[in-house]
Amino acid sequence: MSETEFAICPYNESHRIAVFRMPKHLVKCELNYRGPPLKICKYNAAHRVLDMEEHLKECPYYRRFMDNKCLEIALTTRTAPTQEDGHVVSTPL
């Protein structure tokens, strides 16, 4: 059994494309598209959507980016405990 993932083309719902081939397909299929303009997700260029705000609520690439950003902020603002006069005092790392 093949482990290839497939996705539906945002420009033509009758197109079922292997995910690894989607970027090339989108370039070709976009040329024949006559519907409303689709926005390109800045977290995954293979995501083409009408409503970006709604898309970002479900986009796993956006969530991964935000999780990494939150972790980065947490690590840069974290303080290490130190002891002074028997009391624990936090100092920046």
UniProtKB/TrEMBL annotation:
Say which domain of life the source belongs to. Eukaryota
Q: Which GO molecular-function terms appear in the entry?
A: zinc ion binding
Tell me which stretches of the chain form a coiled coil.
Answer: none
Q: Which UniProt keywords apply?
A: Metal-binding, Zinc, Zinc-finger
Please name the InterPro entries in this protein's record: TRM13/UPF0224_CHHC_Znf_dom (IPR022776), Znf_C2H2_sf (IPR036236)
Pinpoint the CHHC U11-48K-type domain residues: 6-33
Q: A Pfam family in this protein?
A: zf-U11-48K
Membrane-crossing segments per the record: none
What is the name of this protein? Gametocyte-specific factor 1-like
Recorded source organism is Drosophila kikkawai (Fruit fly)
Q: What is the lineage of its organism?
A: Eukaryota, Metazoa, Ecdysozoa, Arthropoda, Hexapoda
